[in-house]
Amino acid sequence: MADITPFLPDSAARDGAGQVTVGGLRLADLAREWGTPLYVYDAVTIRQAVKRLRIALSAYPAASEIAYAAKAYFAPQFAQRMAALGLDGDVVSLGELRMAYSNGFAPERIHLHGNNKSADELRAALALDIHAVVVDSLDELAFLEGLAAEAGSRACVWLRVAPGVDVHTHAYRQTGHVATKFGLSLNDGQAVEAIRRARASRWLDLTGLHAHLGSQVFEVDPYQEAIRRLCQLARDTDFTPQEFSPGGGWGVRYTEADPDVAVEAWVQALAETLQGESRMGGWPLPRLVIEPGRWLSARAGVAVYAVGACKVGGDGTRWAAVDGGMADNLRPALYGAAYTAFLPERPDEPATERVNIVGKFCESGDFLLKDALLPPVRRGDWLAIPVAGAYHLSMASNYNLAPRPTALWVEDGQVSLLQVREALLETGWWA
Hints:
2 domains, eight-stranded mixed sheet
């Protein structure tokens, strides 16, 4: 079995019996007490991630901010903890906006994204006077302007620009190329026209430019090129951005096959490129806003499952089914995402078998891991998947009427409940 240490939360350790602990607690004991599927979030990992980003950003000689991308994972108790860390909130829906506002994110620290914002979403943004509405199209610009006039209040806006920059990631995670559904196209004049209209409007206050290239990106060059293109746009239109966001999307390692590129290299590239472009424009340095979601929360989370049916197929393939799957982790089915797994009660036992780890749902695509090298897996084992803190529970469903899982926050041997398992059915209802 591959070394799991790089993928575990910062507080993870082995206790005297060789079992894996997180936050000072055995994963197996948490699974017994709280049931499975179970998601465990480590406080230390979240705090250390925020600290690393702040230290990296300190090299930028002007204002900067970290905005947590709520779509990675957001529940009331989790939102409160992220707000308490002093982060901005990057939200994309009325639900996320309400969750942020109701759980400690001040309106001036909230940015509303989305390619098709509803009237209700935009009216809420105007009523709360949030920091910025990130406008995605010329149609939306006019729509927002009309709503702002109707409300008699000015809207602070950034423009999301599609810079036409490709990144090496799954096609479904690419968002900055020429044919993307997101943003104002740079190559056909839409972005130029948006700047002209926004600056001419009495109801819109254009303060910033924004781009997002995609997610699970490990190369700095595309970000630098996007910054150069957006800054050239600003110079061509004689617009001085007060704020600039190159988005988020920096990758995390899920397996040994993923590159190991420090987040500091990304932040340094952003800061240096923006400084150079600002000098060319003769501007004061804009406020630099980065929007990590996955990078802040993914490695903090561990998913724990109970192993059920184990069998050998007619072709010799070994199968082990767990009590979760695509209803709590859609990523393997959606993106072909790969993971590492381990047995938390015997993590260092020799890995001698290749096995497919699948869920219990009625789809052939309900895989969690394919051809995983593990110790012999049997019914009743606990199986854990690290780097599970982002885009699992936020995309979870009730497929096959499965309840969404419990999530816990662990710290110094203490447990706090982030979300409770849904009670779709009473246990023993048939009795």
